[in-house]
């Protein structure tokens, strides 16, 4: 649920004006990016980077929820986007602090838009985007100019 729609809109507008392609290049004091290979252990790496980054920003209270969401986004990228990978393209994790928000994004080479499924709580898969929606303020995806997409989730960081 979005508590501050104007601040949320401002954060998303800023992100879109700058563009995920530019943000994914990293090297900014308010952002961390991390390339990840198409491997199952990339999920653990993404969780570790997320927790370490949030702790460094003084936002450890957000780290469990954010790590869960990052796990789901990276799992989806590894599972579904690796077949779209041509050459040595990889997944990229981006964490960006735009007070009072933290934006998490996972970019992959697939142009396939993410499609939420009706959650089946008995099945072992199919709940990823439901979890992302439940734990974040809002989520979405943007196409990248180089091809592929960035799936993002926005969190309110109260610190």
TrEMBL record:
<keyword id="KW-0808">Transferase</keyword>
<protein>
    <submittedName>
        <fullName>Anti-sigma regulatory factor (Ser/Thr protein kinase)</fullName>
    </submittedName>
</protein>
<keyword id="KW-0418">Kinase</keyword>
<dbReference type="GO" id="GO:0004674">
    <property type="term" value="F:protein serine/threonine kinase activity"/>
</dbReference>
<dbReference type="InterPro" id="IPR050267">
    <property type="entry name" value="Anti-sigma-factor_SerPK"/>
</dbReference>
<keyword id="KW-0723">Serine/threonine-protein kinase</keyword>
<dbReference type="Pfam" id="PF13581">
    <property type="entry name" value="HATPase_c_2"/>
</dbReference>
<feature type="domain" description="Histidine kinase/HSP90-like ATPase">
    <location>
        <begin position="37"/>
        <end position="152"/>
    </location>
</feature>
<dbReference type="InterPro" id="IPR036890">
    <property type="entry name" value="HATPase_C_sf"/>
</dbReference>
<dbReference type="InterPro" id="IPR003594">
    <property type="entry name" value="HATPase_dom"/>
</dbReference>
């Amino acid at each position: 649920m979005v508590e501050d729609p104007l601040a949320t809109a401002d954060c998303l507008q800023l992100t879109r004006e700058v563009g995920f392609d530019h943000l994914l290049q990293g090297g900014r004091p308010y952002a961390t990016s991390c390339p990840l290979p198409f491997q199952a252990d990339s999920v653990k790496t993404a969780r570790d980077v997320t927790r370490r980054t949030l702790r460094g920003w003084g936002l450890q209270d957000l780290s469990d929820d954010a790590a869960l969401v990052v796990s789901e986004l990276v799992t989806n990228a590894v599972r579904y986007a690796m077949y779209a990978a041509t050459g040595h393209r990889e997944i990229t994790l981006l964490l960006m602090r735009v007070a009072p928000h933290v934006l998490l994004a996972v970019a992959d080479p697939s142009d396939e838009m993410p499609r939420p499924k009706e959650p089946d709580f008995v099945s072992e898969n199919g709940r990823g985007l439901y979890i992302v929606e439940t734990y974040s303020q809002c989520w979405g995806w943007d196409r990248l100019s180089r091809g592929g997409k960035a799936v993002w989730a926005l969190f309110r960081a109260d610190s």
